[in-house]
Amino acid sequence: MPKLWNETIAAHRREVREATLDATAALVAEHGLRAVTMSQVAEKAGIGRATLYKYFPDIETILRAWHERQISAHLDQLARVRDDAGSPAERLDVVLRAYAHISHGTRRHHSSELAAFLHRDEQIIGAQRQLRDLIRDLLAEAAAAGDVRDDVAPEELAGYCLHALAAAGDLSSPKAIDRLVAVTLAGLHPRHHKAT
């Protein structure tokens, strides 16, 4: 097959896949996890049921693919904001701030049923490890620069940050999220620890 033909087919497949993921997420948000059918997804995505089944065998598989796409996008966003910042302290600040806002946005858009389904999946464990490693490395760099306390291991501080900022999902405004990030960062500052 000519290269252009292959590229066109690949682009079409990507478009069908993306439309399917978006349609399923929208339907689940509107009707709930257990109420969505493959027929509804095909109709909303603008494709035939036979085509849909060529891509995905069931709703659960579609949702796992959608969740994987979301996780990848969030990790990419955190890496971008990290890479665009200057000093170790600035990189830590922008990543924690971005993570808090992501946590806020995702918690408010998922029903408890959908969150329970998605978060029991194995892919979430790998993503959590990547996130923890990213924050741990930023904390180690900031500690080496004297911007973050060095009396606690970066791995432990990463756990502190992630648990503290998970509370952003329950907050009602961007200003409240920013205050939560400020409190979290204050707990990392070298002047807040005492010699033991």
Question: What features would you describe in this structure?
Answer:
The chain is mostly helical. The chain has helices spanning 3-31, 38-45, 49-55, 59-84, 88-109, 112-118, 122-144, 154-166, 174-188. It starts with a helix and ends in an 8-residue tail after the last helix. The protein has two domains: 1-57, Homeodomain-like (Arc Repressor Mutant, subunit A); 58-196, Tetracycline Repressor, domain 2 (Orthogonal Bundle). It has nine helices and no strands. α1 (3-31) crosses α4, α5 (88-109) packs antiparallel against α7 (122-144) and α5 (88-109) crosses α9 (174-188). It is elongated, with a radius of gyration of 21 Å.
Give a brief rundown of this model.
The protein has helices spanning 3-31, 38-45, 49-55, 59-84, 88-109, 112-118, 122-144, 154-166, 174-188. With 196 residues, it is mainly alpha-helical.
Key phrases:
Tetracycline Repressor, domain 2; 2 domains; mainly alpha; 77% helix; elongated; Arc Repressor Mutant, subunit A; 9 helices; 196 residues
The number of distinct β-strands equals 0
From the 3D structure, determine the CATH topology of the largest domain. Answer: Tetracycline Repressor, domain 2
Q: Treating each run of at least 4 consecutive H or I residues as one helix, how many helices? A: 9
Order of helices and strands: HHHHHHHHH
How large a portion of the residues is in β-strands, by DSSP E? Answer: under 5%
Q: How many domain units?
A: 2
**Can you tell me the CATH superfamily of the largest domain?**
Tetracycline Repressor, domain 2
What is the CATH class name of the largest domain?
Mainly Alpha
Assign the structural class, choosing from mainly alpha, mainly beta, alpha/beta, alpha+beta, or little secondary structure.
Answer: mainly alpha
Head-to-tail CA distance between termini = 70 Å
Main pleated sheet = none
CATH architecture of the largest domain: Orthogonal Bundle
Helix content: over 70%
Q: How would you describe the shape?
A: elongated
Rg over CA atoms: 21 Å
* Average pLDDT, all residues: 87
The low-pLDDT segments are: none
